[in-house]
Design a protein that fits this description.
mainly alpha; 5 helices; about 65% helix; about 0% strand; Cytochrome Bc1 Complex, Chain D, domain 2
């Protein structure tokens, strides 16, 4: 067996895992509502939709999460920040167990 083959197999396996993760991420979608475009444009530059929808949060928690992402380099105007926080707070908030 050539010496480069084990390294090549590692790369192929790693890429396969990444592609599978990307496929799952793409299968999950965000609710259709005002602000969705801003969320997709800003938030999915660094992670998949699955990360966004994984944990419903309160409006204050979403504001904090988006502020942290800005601190990590997400470039948002004040208007985009407001639209994203409003979208996430409205569409990805914790559900009332009585519903």
């Amino acid at each position: 067996m050539p010496r480069f083959l084990p390294g090549l197999m590692f790369v192929v396996c790693s890429l396969s895992g990444s592609l599978a993760t990307a496929a799952v991420s793409q299968a999950i979608s965000l609710p259709d509502a005002a602000g969705q475009e801003q969320v997709l444009g800003a938030c999915t530059r660094c992670h998949g939709v699955d990360v966004i929808v994984a944990q419903p949060r309160s409006p204050d928690q979403w504001a904090e999460v988006v502020s942290v992402m800005v601190g990590h380099g997400a470039a948002l105007t004040d208007d985009e920040y407001d639209k994203i926080v409003t979208y996430l707070s409205t569409n990805l908030a914790p559900r009332d167990p009585a519903d």
